[in-house]
Amino acid sequence: MNEDAMRRFPVPDYEDLPEDLRDRIDEETEEAGFTPNVFSAFAYKPSHFRAFFAYHDALVSDTPLAREEVEMIVVAVSGANDCLYCVVGHGALCRIYAGAPKLADQLATNHRQADVSDHHMAMLDFAVTLTESPEAVTDEDVQRLRDAGFSPEEVWDIASVAAFFNLSNRMATVADMRPNDEFYAMGRSD
Amino acid sequence: MNEDAMRRFPVPDYEDLPEDLRDRIDEETEEAGFTPNVFSAFAYKPSHFRAFFAYHDALVSDTPLAREEVEMIVVAVSGANDCLYCVVGHGALCRIYAGAPKLADQLATNHRQADVSDHHMAMLDFAVTLTESPEAVTDEDVQRLRDAGFSPEEVWDIASVAAFFNLSNRMATVADMRPNDEFYAMGRSD
Amino acid sequence: MNEDAMRRFPVPDYEDLPEDLRDRIDEETEEAGFTPNVFSAFAYKPSHFRAFFAYHDALVSDTPLAREEVEMIVVAVSGANDCLYCVVGHGALCRIYAGAPKLADQLATNHRQADVSDHHMAMLDFAVTLTESPEAVTDEDVQRLRDAGFSPEEVWDIASVAAFFNLSNRMATVADMRPNDEFYAMGRSD
Amino acid sequence: MNEDAMRRFPVPDYEDLPEDLRDRIDEETEEAGFTPNVFSAFAYKPSHFRAFFAYHDALVSDTPLAREEVEMIVVAVSGANDCLYCVVGHGALCRIYAGAPKLADQLATNHRQADVSDHHMAMLDFAVTLTESPEAVTDEDVQRLRDAGFSPEEVWDIASVAAFFNLSNRMATVADMRPNDEFYAMGRSD
Amino acid sequence: MNEDAMRRFPVPDYEDLPEDLRDRIDEETEEAGFTPNVFSAFAYKPSHFRAFFAYHDALVSDTPLAREEVEMIVVAVSGANDCLYCVVGHGALCRIYAGAPKLADQLATNHRQADVSDHHMAMLDFAVTLTESPEAVTDEDVQRLRDAGFSPEEVWDIASVAAFFNLSNRMATVADMRPNDEFYAMGRSD
Amino acid sequence: MNEDAMRRFPVPDYEDLPEDLRDRIDEETEEAGFTPNVFSAFAYKPSHFRAFFAYHDALVSDTPLAREEVEMIVVAVSGANDCLYCVVGHGALCRIYAGAPKLADQLATNHRQADVSDHHMAMLDFAVTLTESPEAVTDEDVQRLRDAGFSPEEVWDIASVAAFFNLSNRMATVADMRPNDEFYAMGRSD
């Protein structure tokens, strides 16, 4: 694991980790070809590692949202929160899942200028509003999502992804997690 | 379970829930004397129920922070995010765990005016800054916590509690979760 | 009078006050069963004491607004300004005048989630907008109040209450006025 | 009285006003050579007229602050709140009392660029902070004023003037009070 | 040239300037009767002097907008950016070109309260939005300008003037450019 | 030239452009291997095309700042203003001039987390503050740049680059200029 995975807390040694963490890290490393630094960073506190990735897994596996939709939300929210790790790491996933090499840079910079459908723009508007002004979300905001064709469960899930990355963005920034070099370039060719 | 636990999504019937959810809800109901509405609300989506409470449990059970410190952070963060359910629900817990009937109202309104030690004021300043301006957290902010006597693990945990309630606050507001009547008055006498 | 009525200016001795201030303080003390700290605090400067309470008295005595409506506005405005004294002190009055034990906590946290009629929500939206963005109040905002059924005089009075507590909140925060212990718990049972 | 003194409420007829209001208006008219529109506007509600000007009179007559200092605070606060009536009306007073034809435009635009002493800059910084972020005023802000040479009573009075114009600015903007033509040009020559 | 034209950079000697700068300065001085300080200030760096005034000249000479419309935009934008030099300097030009002695103070303080037509209010709303929230400008904002009767080229030019003064305001504030005394009073009589 | 260079104004035909614009476009196209869309977009109004690029050229050719420093400022400022065209287009230039494939994504997302020296961090802090809060730039901000080793002329130039891109960002967003596909990927390998 990368010692420079984050800069404000020490990264533990792989050998010292509980077996279930090592298994998950092995699996991710095999799949990605490298260990994404968020795994090395959260290993600092195994109980949080387990909780964080379990929540993440629920969000991406038990949802009518397509995976590319989830990643679009993540990148727009992380851009609004100015979170380096999540913009770069999930920017790579967004490019890959959406098969759209330019999409992540558009979403991270200003989702209003992104090449997305009206359906997806409504989803992103909602996620960014919930990020920037949670106190001001009203029935009208929820209704706008429903009018754009999202089911109640999809509304819940869009909110959940946005909310979870309001957690993730804050942890990544506090710890100064560093995106792996690989993430910057992944998925940039058609 | 209270049908009015939240106003923007339907509350499921207790009988229709998976057994592990019913068990957890029974346990909470027995302990509190009523079912806190956040359990009824998250039951809308069992996979999220499990992930949400597992993360919460890790935060309060595996930490050098005292439970009253955790609740102080929760109330200050939820006040900054204007989240009704969390201010009222965790306000009750804060009063009870801290044995301080006035503390929650102070923290929810303006943590700067709360009757807390300098040590705790540093903790709350950090949590509120992370909530309101996550992008601007710097080495100096982290150092200020260390100077106030918090260990690295405590810094991580303070950040984690603040981050998690940035998730919770957004879900509670989107769903318009309603605090149980009991929470408003609990812990208000010395 | 409580020496700790405020923390950034000295509280004068009751015996040293002009007679009209002592009379007013006696009256308030008899009515409330204790001396609300705002009276002890403003006694620091008798000419301001007189002006402050005369304005306050005009607002609550010469208006078609019900007293509970006045207190609802006060709590929502004071919540928006994060003012401890006014949220707690007028929270008590709001609970009592409205006969609604939960209302003040809802208004102070997020008026958008409060259990109020559409008529009162329009009133509160206006008061909070005037508090947070006075420069942006337009004909449309005023018209919305008229459409919600408020007379021109009521519009003036809603604005006046909101404006006056933008004064009060600032004085209470600068002086670090402390809510009396009694206020925290008053009016919390049905 | 000018029918166009304000645009969102009707201006009453002078003849219909209570005698004490007519007396005050006569006095002001004689002194200024015209009736400042704020008097015509507040006459809409006589009880508020009395309270408003009584508070104002206390602020300018019972204070160790020089009148020009009071007007400097008023203009900086009103500029921060984008209030047309108060910037123009009190801009005139500021120019006259300070004998400084350029000062009001500087204060209304950006007090940081105004030609004032360090002593007065501290006073203005405090007044503008209290206007824009009342919740964030701390012991340090008050201490900075004390270090700049202001007595405790002067601190109270600086805060009181700033607080009162946070009331005035909101009333003037809600009512769309119009500055008299005379105010725009008064005091502009040395 | 005025040595006090700006306070954070040295003002060069007229004699040391390249001939084209001297010519332009002579011309402006002859026209205005004094050397506007922005010319003395930008002479600090001749290549920027040339570029800055060339852009400015293009904006005012090649446009279907009336010169008074250009100056109205400049004053509203500069007011939003709290820029002393531009509010005072262009305030004078605005008064003169529009033949409206009160207009500049209204626009600099709060364009929403200015005595302008609906057509011009739409123009000013757009310019101020572009100044304060450039990222949030959408098709609807542009359409509103078109609906208010502005041609596509006028939309481009309104945006260009607003954008250019977002440059100017920042240079003037960084350099602490001082408005010439003459500007404060120019154009104030009908 | 790309018809889709911008979406809110028509892109003119190359053949219809004045000769000096065609020459400049030819030159840029030869150098880059494609026509950067900002040239096609500004060709909408030739007088502005000339002024815009003349200012730009002065900024990059007459300065002690290294070109990579200029591009670092541009990307940080454009990220703060959420400007798609400038983040992507100048992100490419930043990567190339700095020989740093990851730098632009870091600067655009959150300059505080970028891999830059303290010297450059001071430069970027200044540029972003000037972008977000121009009214609040003070002597201390300028002194901090001087303390970080920047000469007065470099301070002027840092401010000028930041100011100019506050113009550019607004024009690019209003016109909805689209980054050329090439920019997204350029300079991403070491």
Short description:
Six copies of one chain form a homohexamer. Chain A has 190 residues and is mostly helical.
Write the layout of secondary structure elements.
6 copies of one chain form a homohexamer.
Chain A: H1 19-32, H2 37-42, H3 46-61, H4 67-80, H5 84-98, H6 103-110, H7 118-132, H8 139-147, H9 152-175, H10 181-185
Helix pairs in contact in A: 4-5, 4-6, 4-7, 4-9, 5-6, 7-8, 7-9
According to CATH, the fold-level topology of the largest domain in chain A is: AhpD-like
Number of domains of chain A: 2
Radius of gyration of chain A: 17 Å
User: Given the C-alpha coordinates, what overall shape of chain A results?
Assistant: globular
Number of discrete helical segments of chain A: 10
Look at the structure and give the mean pLDDT of chain A.
97
In CATH terms, what is the architecture of the largest domain in chain A?
A: Up-down Bundle
**Secondary structure: number of strands of chain A:** 0
Q: Determine and state the CATH class of the largest domain in chain A.
A: Mainly Alpha
Strand content of chain A: under 5%
Q: Name the assembly state.
A: homohexamer
Query: Can you give the helix content of chain A as a percent range?
Result: 55-70%
Q: Structural class, from helix and strand content of chain A? A: mainly alpha
Name the largest protein-protein interface in this structure. A-B, 46 and 46 residues
Taken in chain order, the helices and strands of chain A follow as HHHHHHHHHH
Low-confidence stretches of chain A: none
Instruction: Give the terminus-to-terminus CA distance of chain A.
Output: 30 Å
Q: Name the CATH superfamily assignment of the largest domain in chain A.
A: AhpD-like
